[in-house]
Design goal:
By secondary structure, this protein is of the alpha/beta class. Helix content is about 25%, strand content about 30%. The two termini are about 20 Å apart. It binds flavin-adenine dinucleotide.
Amino acid sequence: MYDLIIIGGGPAGLTAGLYASRARLNVLMLERLAPGGQVLNTDWVENYPGFPEGISGFELVDRMKAQSEKFGLQIANEEALDLELAGATKTVKTNKGEHEAKTVILACGATWKKLGVEGEALLAGKGVSYCATCDGPFYRDQDVAVIGGGDTAVEEAIFLTRFAKKIYLVHRRDQLRATKLLQERVMAEEKITLLWDTIPVRIAGRNGVEGIELRHVKTGEITRKDVQGVFIFVGTIPNTDVAKNLIKLDANGFVLTNDDMETSVSGIFAAGDIRSKRFRQIATAVGEGAAAAFSVEKYLESLEGP
Ligand SMILES: Cc1cc2nc3c(=O)[nH]c(=O)nc-3n(C[C@H](O)[C@H](O)[C@H](O)COP(=O)(O)OP(=O)(O)OC[C@H]3O[C@@H](n4cnc5c(N)ncnc54)[C@H](O)[C@@H]3O)c2cc1C
């Protein structure tokens, strides 16, 4: 019986693992791929404190992993498939077996929806990005395309005006889904050109993005814009399969918690991008991982009684 099972080995899970192991809890982390999460897809991180020159995504999470393991965190390469409750005991069923614990932290993150067009996978991290806050500063005085029409796409397009010379906001409909206020702001931005009724069909380039081919959905006309970056904001999917029938989720499927990272089920906590929240960054994920570990400690103390 573990004190804690952490599902997911991204920044949130690794930080929870560090705090809980250092507090001498008996902790198992389950990670279906390699520990590191989305940061493994991040070439260079410039906004994580402590690294004034920036740090490669791989090195940053490798250091987080080493620090957690130093304090005794056990990491198993297993995918959690199901979570069951029997009294206060949580049983996590995986692709390799099952494990019991007194508490669980869900730190499974979220997956950015892909467009699925030619060139997207090849150029991911080489001009194709799913995070303007992260990658925007790399596109100073360059031309970029932003794909999407919701709040995130519009907010990120506006954010990119700080760096990029010209921004094409590519939207498949003839009006934006974003809130009125954001619509007014985006229309007023001189650097942003809206391309209505348009979808991307190919991202061109070999070692970096060189352009984007677009199709007008009403006329079928194909055009090309020479851009050096393509930012894709067509939604995120929270990785909640393991517990979605057990805990309360918001309308978009993200896990609802309070400020102490407690979910609707006693003894189950959540941290990082899987949570229902506004900001999804490494710094926010690690803060929540630490908070979740503290809450686990408090919960375990309450099980022991006075
Ligand atoms: C391309 C890109 C660039 C980014 N750049 C930056 C940046 O420069 N700065 C910044 O602050 N943020 C950046 N971000 C955002 C940042 O990476 C995320 O906010 C952060 O990684 C979230 O951490 P997390 O631990 O919550 O989730 P994740 O990083 O998503 O990790 C979740 C982990 O859980 C695992 N998992 C999921 N389900 C299961 C299961 N059932 N069983 C076992 N394991 C499971 C996954 O394999 C994954 O490893 C970037 C994101 C992307 C996509």
